[in-house]
Amino acid sequence: MTMPDVWPAAAPSSGAAKATRPQKRSGKRRAEILDAAMSVFAERGYANGSLAEIAERAGMTHAGVLHHFGSKEQLLIALLEYRDEADVSTLEGRHAPEGAELLEHLIRTVERNEQRPGIIQAYSVLLGESVTDTHPARAFFTSRFEGLRTMVTTALAEATGRDPGESDIRAAANGIIGAMDGLQEQWLLDKQSVDMGAATRLLIRAVTEELRASPPDGRA
Amino acid sequence: MTMPDVWPAAAPSSGAAKATRPQKRSGKRRAEILDAAMSVFAERGYANGSLAEIAERAGMTHAGVLHHFGSKEQLLIALLEYRDEADVSTLEGRHAPEGAELLEHLIRTVERNEQRPGIIQAYSVLLGESVTDTHPARAFFTSRFEGLRTMVTTALAEATGRDPGESDIRAAANGIIGAMDGLQEQWLLDKQSVDMGAATRLLIRAVTEELRASPPDGRA
DNA sequence: CCTACCGATCGGTAGG
DNA sequence: CCTACCGATCGGTAGG
Fold this sequence. Notes:
Two copies of one chain form a homodimer.
Chain A: H1 13-19, H2 27-44, H3 51-58, H4 62-69, H5 72-91, H6 99-113, H7 117-130, H8 138-160, H9 167-189, H10 196-213
Helix pairs in contact in A: 1-2, 2-3, 2-5, 2-7, 3-4, 6-8, 6-10, 7-9, 8-9, 9-10
Chain A binds a DNA duplex through helix 4.
């Protein structure tokens, strides 16, 4: 997890995956199952989403799904990795953005996400479930946030000329990341009342100006 | 839903509920079931939490739980209302805060929430699940956010001398509310790395200063 | 508030 | 990748 463009930022994967010839070891079937799994988990959640429904959308029986992924839990893990790969390929060839450029990239990502409610819903539902006891996606999200916090903290420090170790910088980074996730929940519940891009843009602008204006202070 | 102190802000209800004599119609048993339900839903989610486990923690069989609440869905609805009432009683006697005072109240609420991971986890898990299809808590959260957006927008407008109809004011309110929810997910996954209060405080300060400084602009 | 039971659904396995 | 099956668990009901 090193890209800022992680997960709720992927391009529709079907195009890239289906355009190529069948990958080694029936990768096409696997991709179809993963697409079906994402839509089912988005609509029902992981706990409540059944292998039978995933299988039906992928055109097979639930035993067929298990043949490909071994267990429901391994299917979820594969889905999380699959989405990550799709996102990384979006950035391939370009250099990973830094400083103010990364902050602008975050805003563009949020705006793009407004066009992909399905992916956002799957992400939000799985994130919400992930804090339950022994949830298989917990480690994924924990390390995702760890990476995001590092990236955004660094970018904010560079963009404002402050030290990344200052507590204000870290608080600001955590707040921006939190806002992006919380806005998705609000938006999914009432899309007309929430402009995720506008809110993110204003928050980032307000925070960077605040950090430029206030005196360097806290350290740990 | 008119209070800002809603839900992830309640005082431990057991004290108040158990101190009084049995309420009319076995309210004490109901409260014990509701407390058990909150802990089970926090740990397993609503979809994955079973009536049998709730019943066990409340010291009865699952048929007993159904005797009191009729169905699992009605138990959830009752739980959401029950938490709301506990929060409202916290504010009783005081006037509902407004303007800058409400913004300070939000920060205090976030700081207090850092002492009650169980309630925060139940809230976060149910919020995440609520965006799934036909989830019984969906209406609750939708109207909760509607109320919060109105309150925070009004408070921000009062605190900065701007018009509550401006798009910047609404974007700022949505961003602050979103940050509070998103920070909870981050915090639940890694409590040591996230200071919810510090992040909320910085965001509110940055946003209010930004709104005071920038020219009145957008209207709808 | 319990015992006893119901039909439905679940994830996973066997064996091909 | 399927048919057939397994044990387990689920929410809810009957009847007291």
